[in-house]
Design goal:
The protein has 346 residues and is α/β, with parallel strands linked by helices. It is built from 11 helices and 12 strands. The protein folds into 3 domains: 58 residues, 434 Repressor (Amino-terminal Domain), CATH 1.10.260; 133 residues, Rossmann fold (3-Layer(aba) Sandwich); 131 residues, Response regulator (Rossmann fold).
Length: 346
Protein backbone atom coordinates (compact mmCIF):
# COMPACT_ATOMS: atom_id res chain seq x y z
CA UNK A 1 0.00 0.00 0.00
CA UNK A 2 1.30 3.46 -0.87
CA UNK A 3 2.51 4.92 2.42
CA UNK A 4 1.88 8.46 1.13
CA UNK A 5 -1.81 7.80 0.59
CA UNK A 6 -3.74 9.40 3.47
CA UNK A 7 -5.99 7.06 5.42
CA UNK A 8 -9.38 8.28 6.47
CA UNK A 9 -9.59 9.00 10.19
CA UNK A 10 -11.22 6.12 12.03
CA UNK A 11 -14.90 7.00 12.27
CA UNK A 12 -14.82 9.63 9.53
CA UNK A 13 -17.89 9.37 7.32
CA UNK A 14 -19.59 7.00 9.78
CA UNK A 15 -23.38 7.15 9.62
CA UNK A 16 -24.54 8.50 12.98
CA UNK A 17 -27.30 7.30 15.26
CA UNK A 18 -28.97 10.68 14.84
CA UNK A 19 -29.03 10.25 11.07
CA UNK A 20 -30.75 6.88 11.48
CA UNK A 21 -33.28 8.45 13.87
CA UNK A 22 -34.09 11.23 11.41
CA UNK A 23 -34.49 8.84 8.48
CA UNK A 24 -36.71 6.49 10.50
CA UNK A 25 -38.69 9.41 11.99
CA UNK A 26 -38.03 8.33 15.57
CA UNK A 27 -35.95 9.69 18.43
CA UNK A 28 -32.28 8.86 18.93
CA UNK A 29 -33.24 7.20 22.22
CA UNK A 30 -35.59 4.87 20.32
CA UNK A 31 -32.80 3.87 17.94
CA UNK A 32 -30.53 3.21 20.93
CA UNK A 33 -33.20 1.03 22.50
CA UNK A 34 -33.61 -0.83 19.19
CA UNK A 35 -30.03 -2.08 19.54
CA UNK A 36 -29.85 -2.48 23.31
CA UNK A 37 -33.42 -3.25 24.43
CA UNK A 38 -35.37 -4.15 21.29
CA UNK A 39 -38.27 -5.59 23.26
CA UNK A 40 -39.07 -2.03 24.40
CA UNK A 41 -39.55 -0.82 20.81
CA UNK A 42 -42.81 -1.46 18.93
CA UNK A 43 -42.67 -3.91 16.03
CA UNK A 44 -43.67 -1.17 13.56
CA UNK A 45 -40.79 1.06 14.70
CA UNK A 46 -38.36 -1.87 14.73
CA UNK A 47 -39.19 -2.58 11.09
CA UNK A 48 -38.67 1.08 10.12
CA UNK A 49 -35.37 1.31 11.96
CA UNK A 50 -34.14 -2.01 10.54
CA UNK A 51 -34.88 -0.82 6.99
CA UNK A 52 -32.97 2.45 7.55
CA UNK A 53 -30.03 0.65 9.21
CA UNK A 54 -29.71 -1.65 6.20
CA UNK A 55 -30.12 1.18 3.69
CA UNK A 56 -27.55 3.49 5.30
CA UNK A 57 -25.12 0.76 6.36
CA UNK A 58 -25.22 2.04 9.93
CA UNK A 59 -22.83 0.46 12.45
CA UNK A 60 -23.35 1.27 16.15
CA UNK A 61 -20.16 2.59 17.73
CA UNK A 62 -19.48 0.34 20.71
CA UNK A 63 -16.18 2.01 21.61
CA UNK A 64 -16.22 4.79 24.21
CA UNK A 65 -16.17 8.26 22.67
CA UNK A 66 -12.57 9.12 23.43
CA UNK A 67 -11.40 5.82 21.95
CA UNK A 68 -13.48 5.98 18.75
CA UNK A 69 -10.52 7.09 16.63
CA UNK A 70 -8.07 4.61 18.11
CA UNK A 71 -6.92 1.64 16.09
CA UNK A 72 -7.91 -1.60 17.77
CA UNK A 73 -5.68 -4.62 18.07
CA UNK A 74 -8.41 -7.08 17.13
CA UNK A 75 -9.34 -8.47 13.72
CA UNK A 76 -12.87 -9.78 13.13
CA UNK A 77 -13.36 -12.97 11.14
CA UNK A 78 -16.67 -14.55 10.13
CA UNK A 79 -16.55 -18.28 9.32
CA UNK A 80 -19.52 -20.34 8.06
CA UNK A 81 -19.05 -23.06 10.67
CA UNK A 82 -16.63 -22.82 13.59
CA UNK A 83 -17.17 -26.48 14.49
CA UNK A 84 -16.44 -27.68 10.95
CA UNK A 85 -12.98 -29.25 10.55
CA UNK A 86 -12.61 -27.74 7.09
CA UNK A 87 -11.98 -24.26 8.52
CA UNK A 88 -9.84 -25.29 11.51
CA UNK A 89 -6.47 -24.80 9.80
CA UNK A 90 -7.52 -21.44 8.39
CA UNK A 91 -8.51 -20.17 11.84
CA UNK A 92 -5.33 -21.51 13.45
CA UNK A 93 -3.01 -20.18 10.76
CA UNK A 94 -4.70 -16.78 10.83
CA UNK A 95 -4.64 -16.51 14.63
CA UNK A 96 -1.03 -17.69 14.98
CA UNK A 97 0.23 -15.20 12.38
CA UNK A 98 -1.68 -12.30 13.93
CA UNK A 99 -0.64 -13.05 17.49
CA UNK A 100 3.05 -12.92 16.60
CA UNK A 101 2.53 -9.23 15.92
CA UNK A 102 0.34 -8.38 18.90
CA UNK A 103 -3.05 -8.71 17.19
CA UNK A 104 -5.89 -10.97 18.31
CA UNK A 105 -8.65 -12.76 16.45
CA UNK A 106 -12.33 -12.15 17.18
CA UNK A 107 -14.34 -14.99 15.64
CA UNK A 108 -17.99 -15.44 14.72
CA UNK A 109 -19.94 -18.16 12.90
CA UNK A 110 -22.65 -17.51 10.33
CA UNK A 111 -23.50 -21.18 9.70
CA UNK A 112 -24.06 -20.38 6.01
CA UNK A 113 -26.61 -17.63 6.83
CA UNK A 114 -26.13 -14.23 5.19
CA UNK A 115 -28.35 -12.74 7.90
CA UNK A 116 -26.16 -14.10 10.70
CA UNK A 117 -23.08 -12.90 8.84
CA UNK A 118 -24.63 -9.43 8.56
CA UNK A 119 -25.26 -9.34 12.31
CA UNK A 120 -21.68 -10.38 13.02
CA UNK A 121 -20.21 -7.80 10.64
CA UNK A 122 -22.29 -5.03 12.19
CA UNK A 123 -21.22 -6.06 15.70
CA UNK A 124 -17.55 -6.33 14.72
CA UNK A 125 -17.47 -2.96 12.98
CA UNK A 126 -19.08 -1.43 16.04
CA UNK A 127 -15.96 -2.33 18.01
CA UNK A 128 -13.68 -0.56 15.48
CA UNK A 129 -11.51 -3.58 14.61
CA UNK A 130 -8.25 -3.23 12.73
CA UNK A 131 -9.56 -5.33 9.82
CA UNK A 132 -12.39 -7.61 8.78
CA UNK A 133 -12.09 -11.07 7.19
CA UNK A 134 -15.08 -12.76 5.56
CA UNK A 135 -15.63 -16.14 3.90
CA UNK A 136 -16.70 -16.15 0.22
CA UNK A 137 -18.53 -13.37 -1.64
CA UNK A 138 -22.11 -14.26 -0.76
CA UNK A 139 -23.27 -11.36 1.42
CA UNK A 140 -26.53 -9.58 2.13
CA UNK A 141 -27.06 -6.11 0.57
CA UNK A 142 -26.60 -4.57 4.03
CA UNK A 143 -23.26 -6.35 4.50
CA UNK A 144 -22.15 -5.18 1.06
CA UNK A 145 -23.03 -1.63 2.09
CA UNK A 146 -21.06 -1.90 5.34
CA UNK A 147 -17.90 -3.30 3.77
CA UNK A 148 -18.07 -0.68 1.02
CA UNK A 149 -18.35 2.16 3.54
CA UNK A 150 -15.76 1.02 6.09
CA UNK A 151 -12.24 2.45 6.04
CA UNK A 152 -10.55 -0.70 7.38
CA UNK A 153 -9.02 -3.51 5.28
CA UNK A 154 -11.57 -6.12 4.20
CA UNK A 155 -10.50 -9.54 2.92
CA UNK A 156 -12.63 -12.28 1.36
CA UNK A 157 -11.21 -15.77 1.86
CA UNK A 158 -12.00 -19.27 0.61
CA UNK A 159 -12.99 -17.76 -2.71
CA UNK A 160 -11.54 -15.93 -5.68
CA UNK A 161 -13.56 -13.20 -7.36
CA UNK A 162 -11.06 -10.82 -9.03
CA UNK A 163 -13.74 -8.28 -9.99
CA UNK A 164 -14.67 -7.58 -6.36
CA UNK A 165 -13.11 -4.78 -4.32
CA UNK A 166 -11.98 -6.66 -1.17
CA UNK A 167 -8.67 -8.49 -1.19
CA UNK A 168 -9.15 -12.01 -2.54
CA UNK A 169 -7.40 -14.99 -0.96
CA UNK A 170 -8.52 -18.43 -2.03
CA UNK A 171 -9.53 -20.51 -5.01
CA UNK A 172 -12.30 -21.04 -7.55
CA UNK A 173 -14.99 -23.41 -6.30
CA UNK A 174 -16.20 -23.74 -9.89
CA UNK A 175 -12.76 -25.09 -10.87
CA UNK A 176 -12.92 -27.59 -8.01
CA UNK A 177 -16.02 -29.05 -9.66
CA UNK A 178 -14.17 -29.17 -12.98
CA UNK A 179 -11.18 -30.91 -11.40
CA UNK A 180 -13.38 -33.50 -9.66
CA UNK A 181 -15.10 -34.55 -12.89
CA UNK A 182 -11.92 -34.71 -14.94
CA UNK A 183 -10.22 -36.84 -12.28
CA UNK A 184 -13.07 -39.37 -12.17
CA UNK A 185 -13.52 -39.35 -15.94
CA UNK A 186 -9.83 -40.15 -16.24
CA UNK A 187 -10.48 -43.16 -14.02
CA UNK A 188 -13.04 -44.44 -16.53
CA UNK A 189 -16.21 -43.22 -14.75
CA UNK A 190 -19.07 -42.15 -17.03
CA UNK A 191 -22.15 -41.97 -14.76
CA UNK A 192 -20.94 -39.32 -12.33
CA UNK A 193 -23.36 -37.95 -9.73
CA UNK A 194 -22.97 -34.90 -7.50
CA UNK A 195 -24.42 -34.66 -3.97
CA UNK A 196 -25.17 -31.18 -2.69
CA UNK A 197 -24.66 -30.03 0.88
CA UNK A 198 -27.69 -30.37 3.13
CA UNK A 199 -26.96 -26.87 4.53
CA UNK A 200 -29.14 -24.62 2.30
CA UNK A 201 -26.85 -21.57 2.50
CA UNK A 202 -23.67 -23.27 1.27
CA UNK A 203 -23.51 -21.37 -2.02
CA UNK A 204 -19.84 -22.19 -2.55
CA UNK A 205 -20.80 -25.87 -2.80
CA UNK A 206 -23.33 -24.88 -5.45
CA UNK A 207 -20.51 -23.26 -7.43
CA UNK A 208 -18.65 -26.58 -7.26
CA UNK A 209 -21.83 -28.24 -8.51
CA UNK A 210 -21.99 -25.79 -11.43
CA UNK A 211 -18.39 -26.57 -12.40
CA UNK A 212 -19.24 -30.27 -12.20
CA UNK A 213 -22.36 -29.91 -14.39
CA UNK A 214 -20.64 -27.82 -17.07
CA UNK A 215 -17.71 -30.25 -17.32
CA UNK A 216 -19.95 -33.32 -17.48
CA UNK A 217 -21.80 -31.74 -20.40
CA UNK A 218 -18.52 -30.85 -22.14
CA UNK A 219 -17.62 -34.54 -21.96
CA UNK A 220 -20.90 -35.51 -23.61
CA UNK A 221 -22.44 -36.87 -20.41
CA UNK A 222 -25.53 -35.92 -18.40
CA UNK A 223 -25.37 -34.15 -15.03
CA UNK A 224 -26.87 -36.12 -12.17
CA UNK A 225 -27.43 -33.99 -9.06
CA UNK A 226 -28.88 -35.26 -5.79
CA UNK A 227 -30.10 -32.81 -3.12
CA UNK A 228 -30.45 -34.33 0.38
CA UNK A 229 -33.20 -33.16 2.68
CA UNK A 230 -32.47 -29.60 3.82
CA UNK A 231 -30.74 -29.27 7.21
CA UNK A 232 -30.29 -33.02 7.56
CA UNK A 233 -27.13 -33.85 9.57
CA UNK A 234 -24.19 -34.37 7.18
CA UNK A 235 -23.61 -38.10 7.87
CA UNK A 236 -27.34 -38.74 7.54
CA UNK A 237 -27.47 -36.71 4.32
CA UNK A 238 -24.59 -38.72 2.87
CA UNK A 239 -26.31 -41.94 3.86
CA UNK A 240 -29.55 -40.78 2.23
CA UNK A 241 -27.71 -39.90 -0.97
CA UNK A 242 -25.86 -43.23 -1.20
CA UNK A 243 -28.96 -45.31 -0.50
CA UNK A 244 -31.11 -43.39 -2.98
CA UNK A 245 -28.59 -43.24 -5.81
CA UNK A 246 -27.44 -46.86 -5.52
CA UNK A 247 -30.97 -48.29 -5.28
CA UNK A 248 -32.00 -46.92 -8.69
CA UNK A 249 -31.43 -48.13 -12.23
CA UNK A 250 -29.06 -47.18 -13.68
CA UNK A 251 -26.68 -46.56 -10.79
CA UNK A 252 -23.85 -44.05 -10.81
CA UNK A 253 -20.35 -45.38 -11.15
CA UNK A 254 -18.96 -42.38 -9.26
CA UNK A 255 -20.33 -39.91 -6.70
CA UNK A 256 -18.84 -36.51 -5.89
CA UNK A 257 -19.93 -35.33 -2.43
CA UNK A 258 -19.99 -31.62 -1.60
CA UNK A 259 -17.80 -32.27 1.46
CA UNK A 260 -16.05 -35.05 3.33
CA UNK A 261 -18.73 -35.29 6.04
CA UNK A 262 -21.31 -36.19 3.42
CA UNK A 263 -18.87 -38.57 1.75
CA UNK A 264 -18.17 -40.32 5.07
CA UNK A 265 -21.89 -40.86 5.59
CA UNK A 266 -22.06 -42.28 2.08
CA UNK A 267 -19.13 -44.64 2.62
CA UNK A 268 -20.60 -45.97 5.88
CA UNK A 269 -23.95 -46.57 4.18
CA UNK A 270 -22.20 -48.36 1.31
CA UNK A 271 -20.33 -50.57 3.75
CA UNK A 272 -23.56 -51.50 5.54
CA UNK A 273 -25.21 -52.30 2.19
CA UNK A 274 -22.32 -54.55 1.14
CA UNK A 275 -21.31 -52.34 -1.78
CA UNK A 276 -17.79 -52.48 -3.16
CA UNK A 277 -16.18 -49.03 -3.15
CA UNK A 278 -14.76 -48.17 -5.66
CA UNK A 279 -15.69 -51.30 -7.64
CA UNK A 280 -19.43 -50.61 -7.64
CA UNK A 281 -19.07 -46.86 -7.28
CA UNK A 282 -16.14 -44.50 -6.77
CA UNK A 283 -16.50 -41.83 -4.06
CA UNK A 284 -14.79 -38.41 -3.99
CA UNK A 285 -15.13 -35.80 -1.27
CA UNK A 286 -13.97 -32.24 -0.66
CA UNK A 287 -12.05 -30.86 2.30
CA UNK A 288 -9.53 -33.56 3.28
CA UNK A 289 -10.89 -33.72 6.82
CA UNK A 290 -8.63 -35.38 9.43
CA UNK A 291 -10.65 -38.60 9.35
CA UNK A 292 -10.50 -38.99 5.55
CA UNK A 293 -7.56 -41.40 5.52
CA UNK A 294 -8.93 -43.39 8.49
CA UNK A 295 -12.15 -44.48 6.79
CA UNK A 296 -12.51 -47.92 5.21
CA UNK A 297 -11.91 -47.55 2.36
CA UNK A 298 -9.89 -44.38 2.85
CA UNK A 299 -11.53 -41.37 1.23
CA UNK A 300 -10.21 -39.79 -1.96
CA UNK A 301 -10.88 -36.08 -1.77
CA UNK A 302 -9.92 -32.61 -2.97
CA UNK A 303 -7.76 -30.72 -0.48
CA UNK A 304 -8.24 -26.94 -0.24
CA UNK A 305 -5.30 -24.75 0.89
CA UNK A 306 -6.88 -24.07 4.29
CA UNK A 307 -3.73 -23.31 6.29
CA UNK A 308 -2.22 -21.19 3.52
CA UNK A 309 -5.42 -19.13 3.32
CA UNK A 310 -5.27 -18.33 7.03
CA UNK A 311 -1.58 -17.46 7.08
CA UNK A 312 -1.75 -15.38 3.91
CA UNK A 313 -4.90 -13.55 5.02
CA UNK A 314 -3.20 -12.52 8.26
CA UNK A 315 -0.09 -11.45 6.35
CA UNK A 316 -2.16 -9.26 4.02
CA UNK A 317 -3.97 -7.72 7.00
CA UNK A 318 -0.68 -6.87 8.69
CA UNK A 319 0.73 -5.46 5.46
CA UNK A 320 -2.39 -3.35 4.92
CA UNK A 321 -2.02 -1.94 8.43
CA UNK A 322 1.66 -1.12 7.88
CA UNK A 323 2.77 -3.63 10.52
CA UNK A 324 4.65 -5.63 7.89
CA UNK A 325 6.52 -3.61 5.29
CA UNK A 326 5.68 -4.19 1.64
CA UNK A 327 7.00 -2.37 -1.43
CA UNK A 328 4.19 -0.73 -3.39
CA UNK A 329 0.60 -1.79 -2.93
CA UNK A 330 -0.52 -4.81 -0.97
CA UNK A 331 -1.18 -7.73 -3.34
CA UNK A 332 -4.96 -7.76 -3.77
CA UNK A 333 -5.46 -10.96 -5.79
CA UNK A 334 -4.11 -14.18 -4.28
CA UNK A 335 -5.09 -17.34 -6.18
CA UNK A 336 -4.16 -20.62 -4.45
CA UNK A 337 -4.42 -24.23 -5.63
CA UNK A 338 -6.55 -27.17 -4.56
CA UNK A 339 -5.27 -30.70 -5.22
CA UNK A 340 -6.70 -34.17 -5.50
CA UNK A 341 -5.69 -36.53 -2.70
CA UNK A 342 -5.94 -40.03 -4.18
CA UNK A 343 -6.80 -42.78 -1.71
CA UNK A 344 -8.78 -46.02 -1.91
CA UNK A 345 -12.33 -44.79 -2.62
CA UNK A 346 -11.60 -43.36 -6.09
Amino acid sequence: MDQDTPRKRRGAGRVTLSAVARAADVSAITVSRYFNQPEQVSSERRERIAAVVAELGYVPNLVAGGLASARGKIVGMVIPNISGPIFADTIQGFSDTLSRHGYQLLLASSYFSVEQEENAVRAFLGWSPAALVLTSHFHSPATEKMIAETDIPVIETWDYQPEREPLQIGFSHYEVGVTAVRYLHGKGCRRIAFVQNSAPGDFSALERRDGYAATVRELGLEPWVFAPDANRAPFEAGKQAMQTLMSGIPRPDAIIFANDNLAAGGLLAAQRAGLDIPGDCAVLGFGDYPFADMLLPSLSTIKPPALEIGELAATRVLQSLGVLHVEGEVQRLNLLDCRVIQRESA
